[in-house]
Amino acid sequence: MDLASRIEAVIEATVNDMGFVVVRLQLSGKQDLRLQIMAEPVDGRGMTVDNCAKLSRAVSVVLDVEALINSPYILEVSSPGLDRPLVRIADFKRFAGFEAKVETRRLIDGRKRFRGRLMGVEDNLVKVLIDGSEMDLPYADIHRAKLLLADASFAASEEQRKQ
User: Fold this and answer.
1) Mind listing the pLDDT tens digit for each residue in 69-83?
2) Which residues in 66-124 belong to E strands, given as ranges?
3) What is the side-by-side strand order in the sheet with 33-41?
4) Short-list 94, 156, 157, 83, CA closest to 126
5) For residue 108, what are the CA distances in angstroms to 49, 96, 117?
């Protein structure tokens, strides 16, 4: 297990106990190590600056106690934002109906980059409506994906926040 995965496993209980879920955790840099944690509330409310600060303090304590990182590092805790990364298969299910940009590890129908409306997941195939045709992208082949900022997705996310 790589260091980023170990860190995520160690902080997961604390983050979850506080009512949040880790969307993505990235560890980058060699000399200037940077730990970036994107999180969001489990109940779908919006992520606030206060939430980020509370999570940062709690995660810092856990990381200090566990001593997984042996050099100085910068910790950044943030919201996934409107162009939210899609990391887990549940993300593709949750955001069905939204526009997304998907990049695959290998060529599928002669290309690696796709843009379209997420239509859900079936048998580990992410269904994407592209130019009126539905494509099945194997989840295991997805390298990177994110929601696209659009008026419709902004309106939907604002409506979800109000509920």
Assistant:
1) 888 899 999 998 888
2) 73-78, 99-108, 111-122
3) 20-28, 33-41, 73-78
4) 94
5) 40, 21, 17
Q: Give me 42's structure tokens.
A: 């489990």
CATH for 89-162? 2.30.30.180
Q: So what's the architecture of 3-78 in CATH?
A: 2-Layer Sandwich (3.30)
What's residue 151's pLDDT?
47
What tens digit of pLDDT does each residue of 109-119 get?
Answer: 999 999 999 99
User: In the chain, what percentage of residues exceed pLDDT 70?
Assistant: 91
Boundaries of every domain in the chain: 3-78, 89-162
17-26 CB contacts, 8 Å cutoff, 24+ apart = 18/54, 18/55, 18/58, 19/43, 20/51, 20/55, 23/80, 23/84, 23/85, 23/87, 24/80, 24/85, 24/87
This prediction's pTM: 0.74
Which residues make Cβ contacts (< 8 Å) with residue 96, sequence separation at least 6? 118, 119, 120
